[in-house]
Structure formats: structure tokens, C-alpha cells
Amino acid sequence: MADYEIFVDRVKKKTGIDLALYKEAQMKRRLTSLYEKKGFANFVDFYSEMDKNRELMDEFLDRMTINVSEFYRNGKRWDVLDKKIFPRLLQSTSRLKVWSAACSTGEEPYSLAMVLSKHIALAQVTIQATDLDDNALAKAKAAVYPERSLAEVPADVKSKYFEEEGSFFKVQPAIKKAVNFSKHNLLKDTYDRNFDLIVCRNVMIYFTEEAKEQIYTNFSKALKPGGVLFVGSTEQIFNPAKYDFEVEDTFFYRKKG
């Protein structure tokens, strides 16, 4: 068995994470640069140390999950969410159940809460936010961000929902309270049900076609009829009907029914 295959097998046994479902060339390149930086010669030696060194294991998970995020990323899509998607969803219910899947360091679910607050009281909002990476979740719960993360945030939102602390910005308590963070593996764990909106952006590009099919199928089952999946700007679904979806807008897919 090749060096990387041994590594994949051992990581799966220890963590439940199946690296075989991630695009191999991308993942190998990313992890090779990490183990070389740490002074290891190959994947097997790297795993041996990772197995007994929690800090190194956390660094591996960080590198694997690519935590790049910002508030209101691709601003025009958030306008569609604000002006079209949320108003339609709120025609049939006064409470929305929303899931920010693979939420990274929290910018996305907090953005969702900020946009939703324009439509309904935050007490009526339940936003579940999940990620695989404990470090990312810890940063998300802290809710303190550098100014560059707020580059696309409208000025009125920035003044209303952030407190400036030195060169950082802290999310207001009312927004923090609207989001519940927890750990979740999209490729392994069970999915909750009856969501009005699922947001999963800029993550699927790292998965194999087999893994994408599995996740889209699970997302479809997790949505209510008429519920919406919001994906990233490089993640258009070319066969939405296969998952019982129809296009509602660019990068927004509505579950039929």
C-alpha cells in the first residue's frame, strides 16, 4: 500500500474522516506542504507523530478544512437572499430553521442572522452552524474578527452589529445568541431535518464527485419541500433534478414540493 493510502486508512480509523472522499491531488499537495514544514519525510512518519500529538492533529485538521471566510461573501448573492429568498420563505412561516453547514470561523452564520434580523425578530430565528474543525468552531464562538473579514459588510450593518475593539470587531451579543455552533462531519454524521434554508458554500469544490452526490442527496432530504440550498459561486449544481431541486436563482436551489 502506498504511503498516502496508509495515511488515509489510519486517519479514517482514528478520526472517522475519510480523506478518500476529498480530491486526492489537492489534499496531498496541501498536506505534503504541512508535513515538510514540520520536518517529516513522508505521510507515515507524519501520522505516527500526529497520533500522539494533539496539537499536530489539530493543525492537520486546520489545513485539511481550509478556513477561509468573510462576512457577506459575494455580496450580490446576499441581496438575493435578503430581497427574494427570505421573503418567500416567510410567506408560509413566522419561524425559520436555518443551517450553515461547514461554517468555518462563523462569518457566514452571523451574516445570516444579520440579514434575517431585517425580516423577523432574532428570537424567532434558529441558526445551526456546524464544522468539522474544533479550532474553527472556537474562533466562531469567540466572534472577534479582523477588519479585513468585514470588507463586504454594509456600513449600517457594521455600525449596528459590531463593536470595535482596537483593530478587531466583535459581533454583538444579540447576533451571537441567534447562532448555535456544533461539530459535524458532512460525510459521516446524520443530518437534522425540516430546514427552511441550508447554506453550504465554497466547500464542495474539495470533494470527489461521489462525495458531492452523497452530500447533495442528504441536503435534499434535510430540507422541507420549498426549502432552499444556497451554494458557493464555483459550485453550481448541473443536474439539480437528480436531487429533487429546481433553480430558484443563481446558486440557489429550491426543493420541489
TrEMBL record:
List the EC numbers from the record.
2.1.1.80
Q: Which InterPro entries match?
A: Bact_Chemotaxis_MeTrfase (IPR050903), CheR_C (IPR022642), CheR_MeTrfase (IPR000780), CheR_N (IPR022641), CheR_N_sf (IPR036804), SAM-dependent_MTases_sf (IPR029063)
Q: Which GO terms describe its molecular function?
A: protein-glutamate O-methyltransferase activity
Q: Does the keyword Metal-binding apply?
A: no
Locate the CheR-type methyltransferase domain: which residues? 1-257
Q: SMART domains from the entry? A: MeTrc (SM00138)
Q: What class of enzyme is it?
A: transferase
Q: List UniProt keywords, sorted A-Z.
A: Methyltransferase, S-adenosyl-L-methionine, Transferase
Gene3D superfamilies assigned: Chemotaxis receptor methyltransferase CheR, N-terminal domain (1.10.155.10), Vaccinia Virus protein VP39 (3.40.50.150)
* The reaction(s) this protein catalyses: L-glutamyl-[protein] + S-adenosyl-L-methionine = [protein]-L-glutamate 5-O-methyl ester + S-adenosyl-L-homocysteine
State the Gene Ontology BP annotations. methylation
Q: Would you say which domain of life the source belongs to? A: Bacteria
Q: What is this protein called?
A: protein-glutamate O-methyltransferase
Species annotation: Kurthia sibirica
